[in-house]
Structure formats: C-alpha cells, structure tokens
Amino acid sequence: MSRVGRSNRVALSDSESQSQEKPASKRQKMDMDHRKSNIDEDVQMSEPSSYDPNKNAHLKGRRRFNADLLDIQTACNGGLVSNGLKLKSKVYIPTWRCISLSLLGFPEIGAGDDEGSVEVVITKEQLGEHVLSANLLISDTSEYPSSHSVFCYSPDGDLSAKLQRIVDEIAEEPPKPLGETVLDLMASVGRVIGPAAQKAASRQHEAESEDEDGSGAEDYDAFEDYDDIAAAPVEPDSIMIKLQENFVDIVATEYRPGFIRLGGNDFVVSVSLPVITLANSIPPRALMAWDRRLLSCPQHLTLLISGFHGLYPVLEQDMSYTSAAQRLGVSLSFKVGLSEKYKPGSEQVQEVVRKHGLIQQDAEDELRIQAEIAAQKAKQNEFDGDWDEDEPMQEPEVAIEEEEVADPGRFDRFSLSSSLESLMDQSFLKIVRLRRLFGLGWAGAELLNAEVERSQRPPETVLALAADAIRAADHEERELARTTTLPHDPLIGLGPKDEFNLPLTAFCYLIRRLALCTRYCIVCHNKLHFDYEALKPYVCDNKLCSYQYYLLNRGPSLEYEIMHNPQTVDLLVSLAYVSAAEGAMDNPLPVGLALRVPIPTGSIQAPQAANNWYSSTQTGPPPETPKTLVPGPDGLCDFDDLTVSEVRTRRITVSRVLLTSRFQKMRFTVAKLINTLPSIEEMKKHLERKVKAGKSKPKLKDIDPNILPAAWSILRWIVGSCTAHIEVIESGAERIKNLDPTWRQFRMTVGSPDAEAKFRDAIALAATKNANVKNYPVIYAFHGSPLKNWHSIIRHGLWFKTIAHGRAYGDGKQCSIPLRLRYKIVIALGVYLAREASTSMGSYAIAGRSHWQKSLSGPTNCVAVAEVVNLPNEFVSQNPHYVVKDTHWIMCRYLLVKGISDVDPPKVPEAKSKGKGKKDPNAIPYVKLDPNHKTTVNGKIIEIPDPSFKVESLLAERQADYVHEEPDEEDLAIFELNPSKPQSQLQSRPHHHDLDDDDDYRVPAPSSSKMKATGPVQRPKDDWKHDPEYVSRTLENLYLPPFESSPGASMAIQRELKSMLKEQETAPSLKDLGWYMPPELIGDNLYQWIVEMHSLDPALPIAKDLKQKNINSIIFEIRFPPTFPNSPPFFRIITPRFLPFIHGGGGHVTGGGSICMDLLTSDGWLPSYSISAVLMQIRLALSNLEPRPARLAQDWNRPYSVEESLAGFRRAAATHNWKVPQGLERLVR
C-alpha cells in the first residue's frame, strides 16, 4: 500500500491483512477549504476534461442547483472514476423539465415525483461489480448551496453496516455543492471497500501492487480530510482490544476492572478494590467514622464510569472528546459506591446511572397517605400556643423491621458518595488535562484548576502568576507521601501526547482523594486551611459552600445517617434541642442558609447567668435595640433577621461580665422547628419503604407537607455540623463494666484521622521518659458538663470555649483565642478531667431541664470517658482532678448518655470455661489500669474493654471473609481476546446476526434480556407473547435518546408512562390490546420509548406478510420533544421495512418508516392526545386498504435509520402542506 506524496490523493490498500493488523491512525480534522482543494486531485476522468465543482460558484439558489446537476450528469456520462470506483447517476426532475433535458442528450434522466432527487450508483471500475445505490434529496433548492439540507438513503437490501453508516451520515454534513457531496460519498465508500477493489486489481497488476506494499499505517494519513470516526468507524474488535490493554494495566495495579452492558449499545466500565485493602492506607477508625458500614461486611469500593454511548476511547490525548463522541453527546459520568462483588449487577447499574424516576403511587402509598392525613387532623399547629416544656413525651411506636433480601449485585451509596461523584464529574478531567499539559502533580493541578475557575483566566496565565504556590503544593504532597500511603500515580512519566488509561487514572485519583478527604472542602473540593483537622470531612468557611453543604445536602447524606445511624441522629437532635431551648446554643448558628421561619411567639426561657460567664478584661457589646419583624407574603420571615428579644448585662466584678444573649429568638425558633419534625424512627421507616424499579426514592419532605422546609434544613445542619464519630454500643461485651446500666454507652472519637497515630506516638515518647508507661500506657478519666453544652462539645472537642463551672485547678496560665465575635476571651489552659465518675456524673453533668418530645431515648445527662497519656506529672494539675494542656494526649473513647426512656442493658455473654491455662480467643481483653491512678465509680474500679480490640477483630473478620472472585464471562472474554478471532466468538451469549465486517463501531449488546412480569392478570394461553430476543437484536443499532428535556415534559411523560403501564398490566389480553411496551426497555431516559405493535387482523395483507416472514411485531420508537405535550412526539418504525408508497405500498408509512398522519404534526396535534390513543390511530392506518394496503419490502429485515424517517416525514408534510414541529432535527440527532 503506497502513499501518494503529500497531495492527499485518495489511495486504496490492496492488503486486507495489513488493515486488520493495524487499524486507522489517530483521527484528524481539516478545514473545509483544505477539503475543497483536494477534490479535483482525487478525481480521475476517463476523458481529458475534468469535473470542476466550483464552476457555477457565481450562481445561487435553484439556478446554481440546476447547473451543478447538469455538470455532475455530464461528468457521469463521461465516466467519473475515483479510487477504482465508477459513478453513474440518474436525476429525477419534474416532467416539464424532461423534454428540454432529453433534447440535450441525457438518456438517463427520467421523470420523477420529487424535485432534486438524485440516484447515485457506484460500481467497481474494472469488474463492474455493484457497490452502492444511494438516493440524494436536496431539501430546499432555493437555499442551495449555503443553507440547504441533503438527505440520503439506499434502496439496497443487503447493505453492510459500514456503508449504511456512510449513507446515514450524509445528512449530518454541512451544506455544500452537489458535486462535493457526491465526491465525498465516493471517497468514503472507497475507504470501506477499497482493499477489496484493489485486491482484484492487484491480480492484474501484481508487479505494481508489490511496490505499493508495506506502508499500511501511513495510507490512512492520506485521508486526512475524512480521517474521522464517522468515516472510518472503530470496530468492536478495536474497542475490546483497547479495553483489554487498560484492563491488564488495572489488574497489574491490584485493582479489579469490570465491563457491564446496558440496553442498546451502551456499557459501563467499573474499577473496584476490596474495602479491607483500604484499611492498609487509611486508619480503620477513620473509615468507621466516615461510614460505619465500610467495614461492616466484605465489600468493594467501586467506581462506575458511564456515558460512553458505545464508544471507547472517547477522549483525545488533550482530554477533549473525540469528534464522534461530541456528535453522540458523550459526557462521562462517575458513580462511587459499595458493591458485594467486584462489580455490581447489570440491572443495579442501570438503576444507578439512570437520570429519571417514575413518580407514581401504589397501594402502600395510598394507605400511608390516608394514615398521615388522619394524623394531621389530630395534630395542632406547633406555633399557635405557648411553649410548654412540661408536656409529656410522645410514646414512640415500635417499628417492625422487615428482613432485607440479600442482593449480591447491589450497588450502595455511602456517606461520601455525593461529594466524590461531584469531584469526579466536575474536576477530574480538567485536572488530568492540566497535569498532562504542564507536568504537574495532583496537588499542583488541583490548585491550578481552582485558581483558574476562581479568576476565570487561562491556565497559562495563572501558572505564571502562582508558579511558586503550585510547585509548593506538589512538594507538600511529596512530603506527605513519606508518612501517608497514597495510591499509585499512573500519569507519572507520561507526556502530553502519550496514551493514558482512563479507568485506572480515575480510580487512583478517587482513592487518593478518599484518603485525603478531611484535608479538602467537601463541597468546593479546595484545600482547607484550618489549624484543626476534623475526623470527618467538613466544609470550608466559604458561605456558598456552607449553604450547599447544609441546604443542598452536599455533605454526608442525611437520609443515609437516618437509615443506618438512627440512635446517633436521635441523640444529636436531642442535644441540639436542649442547647437551643436552654439558651446555650451559640455560634455557629444556622445563618446564611436562607431559612424562612415563622415569627417566634410564646414564652422564651432566659438563660441562666451562671452558665454564661467568661473571663475577660473587656466589657460586652452594647445592648441592641429589638427589631420589629414583618412577615413576608408567605407569612414567614428570614431566620437571619431574628434579633435580640431581651438584652441584659449583670456586672459582678470589674473583670467579669455576662455576655449578652444575642441569639435568643434564633434559639427559640430552632427549638420550635425541631419540635415540628417527626421522630427519627418515623423518618427511618419512611426512607426504607420499598419502591418498585423505576420509581423515585422516598424523600423526607414527603412525610408531612405541612413541615416547613426550614425544619428539614435545621435537621441537616444538626447532623452535618457534627464532625465527631458517635456510635451506639449494642454488644454488652464491649461496654464498660461496673457502670450504671441506665447510662447508654456510645463510642465517640474526635480529632483528625491521624489523631490516633499522634496519640500512639505520644505514648511511645512518654515511654522513653517514664518506665511505668511501658506497663500502663494510659489512664482513664471522665469529663462531665451540663447537657445543654454537649451540642457544642461534640463539635469543638472537650476544650470548648465556655467555662461552665470554672477551672479552679489550672496553673493560672492563660492564652488568647481569636473568635468570630468582636471580642476575645481568655481561658485557663487545660482540659478538666475527673478520675472518679461520680464527680463528673453528679456534680458537673447537670441534667437538662427540657427534652425533645419525639426523642426515643430522651437524654438528660452526658459524660465523656477519655484515654490520657500516663504522664500525670506533666499535667497542669493532677490532684484532686486532672488538667491536661496537651490536647493530643487525650483521646475520647466513650460518651455516656442517661435518658428518660428506659433502656434495656445489653446482655453480656458469659465466657465459657476453656479449662485451666486456656484462654478464649474471642474474649475481649481489658485495659490494664495503673494502680496508682485508678478510675472508679463510687469507689469501685471500672473495667474497660480494649478500644483497639473491636477494630482489630473487625479487620481480621473482613480479611477472613474476603474471597477472590474470578472474572465473569464478559470480562473473561476481554482478557482472553485474540485480535485474529472474529468478534462474534467473544460474546458471552450467542447472537443470531452477523458480527464480522458489518459491525457498527459501538459495542454490540447481548441479544437476550430478562423480561419482567407484566402483571397478575391471567391471560389466555394463546395470547400474543413478547419475544425479548427479537427486540434486543433489533435495538442494537438504536440511536441515542434525545438530549433535551424540561420539567414540564418530564412530568407529562411520566403520566403517560404510568397510564401506558397500567393499561398494559390490566389488559385481559395483549392480543386485544394490540401493542406492548417492554418493561425491560424502560431506560434511564424518559424521552425515548420502544413499543411493539402486533396482532393485526389476519386477513390484512400486511398481517400475512408478517406471518410469512415469522415477524413477531412491528417495533416503533417514540421520541418526545422537550415541549411535550404542547408538541407531538415523533413516531417511527424501526423494523420491519415497509414497501414505499411510490413502489406500491400503503398504510400511511413513509419511505423512511415515519407515520404520515396529520395528528403527528403541529397542525393536527392536541395536548390532550394520549399515546395509547395515537397508537390505536396508527394501527387503524396500517390496516387501511385505501388507497393501497401496507406491505413488507423485499429488504424487510433492514431497519430504518433515523435520517430516513426524518426525510420521509418532511416529504409527507411538504406534500400535504402540514407544519413540521419545531426542533424536530434536534429531537432525532
């Protein structure tokens, strides 16, 4: 195969083997001027005169079209030859023009029905073998050649997929003269069948062809103006080969790749890692704090990459989408979750990646709504009366939990899924592009990307201005990698033009950000610059991030926490209520969240002075004047406008003042809003309601529409602002012994994820100073505080700024701490702790005077139990109580909560005797307490289970439970792919159609699928049966669904879908119904439906044809516009192909498979029409014998293309003067 210099002439290969060994080179684009300059060079004429497509450039409109039409006909009569192909044409024009043209000597010009219809016949030059027949139709010659449209279809019945694709894509080309269109068509066809044509020629010119061998890789460069995926499609083999290369690299990095087929031609790529492996790089306590289910069972952290639309790869080396991907609307989407297997099931993945949910109510919904209405009638308005704190607590109902059915193919979201998905969707590809472009690391590229988005400047400019900071960020991460295990970086060593592994790069980046999640804002994903690093991921101080974090649920999922940590949520809400009701809630308050709340009315309890003293040398701010609140049109006011209801100061000494109570109305409103919420158990029950596949999941706001949105926002704020890890201890063996069983025990951890490591380092350092630390590394102590303070303590730590009862045992040292307030406070240095539990429980853990009425536990007292490094001589004070200044020496381990509700203490399992000298390996070891520093309860020494035992045993269990799973058939086919084998041998399921050279460039979908039950109706045994395999085969070349949508159209389509499914499920006979909508084909896009029409009258000619060809049904595609129901949907037949009207067909089916009916146009459509009624009208039209009956075409098994349908619909509308709906072109693109 030779390359013809640099003239870009079309050259054809005579070696099929070379074409198979190496596919087309990188796709390139060239401008239109370059394309025009090469046309003349590509054309070879059998006569000396050559065809000039620009000959008539001085003409426009119909005159230009007629002149070009005659020129191309003249060229064809002279023998237009290109690339070993010969072109003939037959131009159809109105009869009145035929007379004059026939006089000029054009015998191939005959009369036709459509003006501007050109039939092009392409044959091989030497053998005369027929290659392609194509009909070109110019839409509007008055706009020719600048704004017209060209439609093309081929009457050939055995057209290959490659040639069909070339024919279909002519309609997508920009407007250009007819001659260029014809020459482009020949060039594209030559690329497809060129090797075979040259192979025939090589048998006659063997010597010449031998000189042309050996440069197959370069010959594709000669097609630069056509070197695009649309003109040179990527075969399924090449897609699988590329996937195989990427999958092998992923496995080499010890991750697990997966390939998951969806409906049509689409697929999803997954990459996963056993969660137990994450514990090697991320502290297990941090994993449990982020989501306790991460280590609760053996599972995988799984990344799903969707949106390929059947193409792979979809990115150029500069990270832009390929031209084919852009035309198909490819937009990669990332989903992060947990799966039991190394990849989730196909049905579960389809549910995860879908973008729409059907809103419909079932019987359970109706019963639930009736119960809620009855409850609402008995409920009084919470804001009408005074606030009665003595009202008895509501008795909670005991919920009966249903046993959850195991789903091995599940894909569950976890608490960080939303944040990680947002990061991957919004920033990942941009960051990779910046890394490859400038040779940066992850941290530097992230900082550069953040600055580019903030300043809206080009990255080159930003890099020049902030080069030092960007390089410093990369250096800091390299230093961090010395002490923190970070994942493999697959981009190291790659140049800007080197190929990269997209799934591997995405998963490595995901693992990295998961390991460093507490160092970045959970909303904007920028680096945090706080001195204090929280245990859980949190939000930066940007107000917009705070707004999104709380109000838009961008932080940890509230719904998830309610379903999986209900007792913790109940505790957090109860503490927030007490803090607000008793006037202790201070900054930060839920301001800046755009909360609309009722104007507070009723009594407000003033705070006690004793609990609000600070040590200060400054006076408090001056009293504020109360502000009159005016309700808005909705009867509500802004929460941020609530001002002081009462401002008081009381001077006790010169240096001590009582801070003003500035937020009392805000606290009062927060408490009242919390009181309007249902119990956490009710919320959990609502969220866990089972819904049918395709339905939207339950939402909290649907529990009671009378609850203000501000109340739900307050709930999100309460849960989201808690950065500590609190988990109820269910097992009696894990509880502290010798404590009053009425105190419920929670595990509590605060501080950064590496706080545990710092604590262990402090113990190791202490052991070098004191030999006693080697035997007794830690001592335990209690910290008590009034209940109203714990809302703040669990957020800020034990060193919370308020001195509730003073610190009488400090050394007098003080430190200045800046606050967001306008003044500073000075507090004694150190954290107070007691060695005797009764001191904290009795004297300091003062009970709250109020409680949240919906709380299940009703907490009244709280005490923390902490581990402290055993160096009391270095404490600020150790007698009678501990005062510790080094906060990293303290690790909170337990939170003890006493409540109003009676709590059955967990039963401690009795240890079975193992015999003398034998130990139970499952027995929980207890911490050895220093006898010199005893921790007691009423003088009795407590026994504390080793806090690390649970974590270590949990890791051991997960490691033992892990079983390596072999790849399934689809993945195994990719790993075992042999490029020399045809793609049909690689399918996991048998196909009943050809899969060799005629394959489309998208990955073929399996031909069978599981059909869901259609309903409980008992239908006749001889009823029509749906054939899912037949439908699946037909839909493998289905075009992508519409990309435009609107809320109004979505709601209308949902109603229609609900109505259709209900009618189908309740129909006593599908044969009588006449149509069928396969439930398994209801995908994630509501705007594309597949409907089968069947069981026509057996006496009809079309019914006889269907029976003779063993065709089960007529398959329709329905595409909805974003203006539905004001605009009609587009109906078209996919298969079988009907006989066109001009060839004797009928049934109101156009030549392209669309339906010729005025009710589907803008003139005849009404918004009141239902889809089922339209299907009935189409059925009647197909059954109409006048003027001619519908019949099948000879090439009945060749599906219609979307372009054919659009062209046929436009022709029919123009013939009848019907108005074509606006936006129809976008609907079918």
UniProtKB/TrEMBL annotation:
<feature type="compositionally biased region" description="Basic and acidic residues">
    <location>
        <begin position="906"/>
        <end position="921"/>
    </location>
</feature>
<feature type="region of interest" description="Disordered">
    <location>
        <begin position="981"/>
        <end position="1025"/>
    </location>
</feature>
<feature type="compositionally biased region" description="Acidic residues">
    <location>
        <begin position="208"/>
        <end position="220"/>
    </location>
</feature>
<keyword id="KW-0548">Nucleotidyltransferase</keyword>
<feature type="region of interest" description="Disordered">
    <location>
        <begin position="1"/>
        <end position="58"/>
    </location>
</feature>
<dbReference type="InterPro" id="IPR016135">
    <property type="entry name" value="UBQ-conjugating_enzyme/RWD"/>
</dbReference>
<feature type="region of interest" description="Disordered">
    <location>
        <begin position="906"/>
        <end position="930"/>
    </location>
</feature>
<protein>
    <recommendedName>
        <fullName>UBC core domain-containing protein</fullName>
    </recommendedName>
</protein>
<feature type="domain" description="UBC core">
    <location>
        <begin position="1048"/>
        <end position="1229"/>
    </location>
</feature>
<dbReference type="Pfam" id="PF00179">
    <property type="entry name" value="UQ_con"/>
</dbReference>
<keyword id="KW-0328">Glycosyltransferase</keyword>
<feature type="region of interest" description="Disordered">
    <location>
        <begin position="198"/>
        <end position="220"/>
    </location>
</feature>
<dbReference type="InterPro" id="IPR000608">
    <property type="entry name" value="UBC"/>
</dbReference>
<dbReference type="GO" id="GO:0016779">
    <property type="term" value="F:nucleotidyltransferase activity"/>
</dbReference>
<keyword id="KW-0808">Transferase</keyword>
<keyword id="KW-0520">NAD</keyword>
<dbReference type="InterPro" id="IPR051838">
    <property type="entry name" value="ARTD_PARP"/>
</dbReference>
<feature type="compositionally biased region" description="Basic and acidic residues">
    <location>
        <begin position="28"/>
        <end position="39"/>
    </location>
</feature>
<dbReference type="GO" id="GO:0016757">
    <property type="term" value="F:glycosyltransferase activity"/>
</dbReference>
